[in-house]
Design goal:
450 residues, mainly beta, Tachylectin-2, Chain A, five-stranded antiparallel beta sheet, 2 helices, 30 strands, 5% helix, 38% strand
């Protein structure tokens, strides 16, 4: 059956259920912050080009440190964020995924994404992952370890930016890292450009790179190596730009990795083939796609997902979001201005789904969600103020464009984090780059919901 026909028959039954979806309360139990401008030095054996990052974020190369101000972009009013490029070092930013399995010492494995957003502007941004330890008592977010990715054994199936170097470190011109899992002493990383699934050793060495296969066909995006400028959307490629593996969950019991696309795939007409996302299963033990899949229906107002992690053998959490940032009370009445948000945050949710319960068309059952724009904070745990024209006393909101990290902590708590898109996103304040935040949420009803 064609995808368009599946959508036509399933959307009618899927969407009414979303309107009645249960909303569970969330209480702030902890708040940790890593300042936006946190930099890591490039490895000593990295090319000299990697010592300074962000040199290619303008129309011409930028050779003088911190001379070009970051801004929020046209869609968000082009407000200055107070942080300028290029950087003396590598930005520790853009946290784009939490691994379900922790390090032996309890630290959380998480990713930095591709750097500055595109292949073209990130050839000097090194790809890395971190072991993060939040201190809920002090509010500090410590990075206990940083691991840079490299390809000394030529496992990457295309020319990398630092192809001629001896160390062969990977950059944001090669991959866009968006999801991570830690399994059997190795990392599995999902990325958006291919999209590809990467198997990586604990020291950052790439062990294998797998293309995406669905129904015997490789799924590609506009940034997949080999796709030309004259390619036809919907025929030569069906994965939207910035629409690859935003989420990848490790399923307990089966050991399967389930990737979840950030945006809908394209139909033959080059347009999104419905308001739903595909999830595909990969068997890391065999190194192949299993052919299993399900579909996740986006609720009204949502445009993408941010992360995906299981809480038990079948239930999983998915971050569902719109493209807004900033408090809704500061929405611009007309044209964008310095004192308002043109597109404020409205839909920022964590959705619980049951992957063992699919309808006749393959849609996963949505159990309910928590609203990240309505977190209760009766104990005053919030550590940062939020610009707003309304009373936020006793409440915390998470008004960020990209919220890309969620994991179960224990039977009653989850942890959520943002991707701050340094230096391009704000959210809490109108004129200040967003920090890297982690929030600990007490959500017993949500985690026990069936």
């Amino acid at each position: 059956m064609r995808l368009s026909l599946i959508l036509a028959t399933s959307a009618l039954c899927a969407m009414p259920a979303l309107a009645d979806e249960p909303v569970f309360p969330a209480k702030l139990a902890g708040h940790a912050v890593l300042p936006a401008l946190t930099l890591a030095p490039a490895p000593e054996d990295a090319p000299a080009d990697a010592k300074i990052s962000g040199k290619f974020t303008g129309t011409e190369p930028i050779r003088t440190l911190e001379t070009v101000m970051g801004d929020t972009g046209a869609a968000h009013g082009k407000r200055a964020t107070g942080i300028s490029l290029p950087f003396n070092g590598q930005p520790v930013q853009g946290f784009s995924g939490y691994a379900m399995n922790r390090a032996e010492d309890g630290g959380v494995w998480m990713l930095t994404d591709n750097g500055f957003g595109t292949k073209a502007n990130s050839p000097d941004a090194l790809l890395m992952l971190h072991k993060m330890v939040p201190n809920w008592d002090t509010g500090a977010m410590a990075l206990a370890q940083t691991i840079f990715l490299r390809d000394p054994d030529f496992k990457v199936p295309f020319r990398i930016a630092y192809e001629g170097s001896e160390s062969r470190y990977l950059t944001g011109a090669d991959f866009d890292l968006e999801s991570i899992q830690h399994l059997n002493g190795e990392f599995w990383i999902g990325e958006e450009f291919g999209p590809y699934l990467m198997r990586v050793a604990m020291d950052g060495t790439v062990l294998a790179v797998y293309p995406t296969m669905k129904d015997g066909t490789q799924l590609k995006g506009p940034d997949t190596p080999g796709i030309s400028a004259t390619s036809v959307p919907g025929k030569d490629w069906t994965v939207q730009r910035s629409g690859g593996y935003e989420g990848m969950a490790l399923q307990p019991g089966t050991g399967l990795l389930w990737v979840l696309f950030e945006k809908p795939l394209l139909g033959e007409d080059g347009k999104p083939a419905g308001n739903f996302l595909w999830s595909l299963a990969f068997d890391p033990a065999r190194g192949e796609w299993t052919g299993q899949s399900f579909k996740f229906a986006l609720a009204g107002g949502a445009t993408a997902i941010g992360d995906f992690n299981f809480v038990d053998d079948s239930r999983a959490m998915i971050i569902e979001r719109d493209n807004g940032e900033g408090d809704p009370s500061l929405k611009c009445a007309g044209d964008a201005a310095p004192d308002c948000f043109p597109a404020p945050a409205l839909v920022k949710r964590i959705v619980m789904v049951d992957t063992s319960s699919l309808d006749a068309e393959g849609f996963v059952r949505r159990i309910g969600h928590i609203d990240l724009m309505d977190i209760q904070d009766p104990d005053g745990k919030a550590r940062l103020e939020t610009a707003a024209k309304r009373d936020l006393a006793g409440k915390l909101t998470f008004p960020f464009f990209t919220i890309e990290d969620v994991m179960r902590v224990d039977e009653t708590h989850i942890m959520v984090g943002n991707d701050n898109n340094l230096p391009y996103s704000s959210g809490r304040q109108l004129d200040k780059a967003a920090d890297n935040e982690a929030i600990l949420l007490e959500v017993p009803e949500f985690l026990s919901a069936k």
